[in-house]
């Protein structure tokens, strides 16, 4: 089998797109109004008539061109572009830009300050109420 034939195997491309969409053959069959065996035959076919290809593309939620031009390398490059943070300002949580323990200590200190302010406020309220009772 030549490399050219392998790369233009429409059935394999449909199979890979279906797998990337996390779809089972049964689900694709249901969307096409057929059975799982028919989908298996489609995925094992090197070529598919244009009309059937349009139906499959619609069921998969992609264009006919996407199926025809699909390659594993392009898909890998596409998904890797989301995790390549060298040239991107977006951080997807893979690398912390702060020390989580420092943030925990900051939160603890802030809680401590708030508690001290609350305690001071309660002391002021108590002394004010005592003063009112003495004045009566």
Q: What would the keywords be for this entry?
A:
mainly alpha; 8 helices; 71% helix; disordered N terminus; Cro/C1-type_HTH; DNA binding; Lambda_DNA-bd_dom_sf; coiled coil; Transcriptional regulator, XRE family
Task: Explain the layout of strands and helices.
Blueprint: H1 3-7, H2 10-20, H3 25-32, H4 36-44, H5 50-60, H6 64-68, H7 72-83, H8 100-135
Helix pairs in contact: 2-4, 3-4
The CATH C-level name of the largest domain is: Mainly Alpha
At the fold tier of CATH, the topology name of the largest domain is 434 Repressor (Amino-terminal Domain)
Strand content: under 5%
Main sheet attributes: strand count, strand direction, barrel closure? none
- The number of helical segments is 8
* Helix content estimate: over 70%
* Count of domain modules: 2
Instruction: Give the structural class.
Output: mainly alpha
Task: Supply Rg.
Answer: 32 Å
Shape: rod-shaped
Keywords: Coiled coil
GO molecular function: DNA binding
Protein name: Transcriptional regulator, XRE family
Coiled coil: 104-131
